[in-house]
Structure formats: structure tokens, C-alpha cells
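Much of what follows relies on a compact textual record of a protein's fold. A record is reproduced here so that you can trace the correspondence yourselves:
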Amino acid sequence: MSKRVVGPEIERLIQLMAKLPGLGPRSARRAALHLIKRREQLFTPLTKAMGDVLESVVVCGTCSNVDTCDPCTICADATRDAAMICVVEEVGDLWALERAGAIKGRYHVLGGTLSALDGIGPDDLNIAGLIERSSASEVEEVVLAVNATVDGQTTAHYITDRLEGQDVKVSRLAHGVPVGGELDYLDEGTLAAAVKARRPF
């Protein structure tokens, strides 16, 4: 049985930090120690920032992004292309696309994917909201930016079926060889997708 070397308050901090993505027990201990060592410069401002976010964060009633205002900054931006809705699984996917500056339109966060194994059906996701939004007269294209997993593709097919009959173009992100990728290091699924998605040079 290991001997406790820190007080229960520090131990609780480490245990909570270990629940964060990308942090295991060892990384959480290092991060907690770093915060404690830099209390004034880092820990105190971080605690305040976390409190501020906890009090002010809201889920956008339009697209389900998280922000400090509703509608969110993206939905309220009149310069965004209202003709395009980009569908993502989670808020993190939205943020990644925004960092890349790849989407000039608006977003819709599903909140996950359909999964029979996990008991997640259409009513558990924000699909009804997407169907309603895509029926607006200004919407011309729905871009399915879901992950290339079995559940992601199942969700994409379900949404495509639900949008049938609406006057919108449904497209999806291309899958294949990443920029700078070497064929020898890619898996068979990626290579097969790249061949299927080939285009004129």
C-alpha cells in the first residue's frame, strides 16, 4: 500500500485533473505541482478564469456551440455565409475547423453520433434542430463534417436520408491522403478512400 505524501486537498486536485483528456495520474501530478509552484502567476488567475467561465458559459440555442452569449458569436456574425451549415459531432470539432479557417458558413453541433451499441438514437442527438434549420430558404448546402468512423458514417447516412426532399445540397468532407502524408505510412482504409475520392489533376 502506497504511503500518502500530500494532503487530501492536493490529492483531490490531482485526482480531478487526472480526469481531464490527455492527463493520466502522472501527468496530473506534474501539472498540479506546476500550478502549486506558480500560485500567483498561474493558479490564482486560472481559478478566477474557471469561475468566470462556470458562471457565464451557455449553449447556443441555434447551433449548440458553447459560448458566453446566445446566440453564439458565430451565429450572430452577419458576415458568415448563411447558405452553408457545417454539421459536426462535437464542439471540439467546430473549434478545430475554425482554427483552420476552413468554413465560412455556420455550424450545427450534433452532440455525438448514432450508436446502436451505446443506445444512442436520433432523439438523443440534435438532428431535429438541423432538419429544421436546413429547411430555411437561405440554406443551400449542408456539409457533413463527421468523423470517418462507423458511427460517424451511419449518422451521415441517416442525416442524408432525413434531408432528402429538401432543396439543399448535401456534401461531406473528403477523406484520403493528408497534406505531407507518405503512402507507405497510411492505413488501407485511408488509401482506399483517397483512391475513391480522386479528382482531375
Summary: Helices lie at 8-17, 25-37, 39-56, 73-76, 91-100, 127-134, 150-163, 188-196. The two ends are 64 Å apart (CA to CA). Residues 39-56 form the longest helix (18 residues).
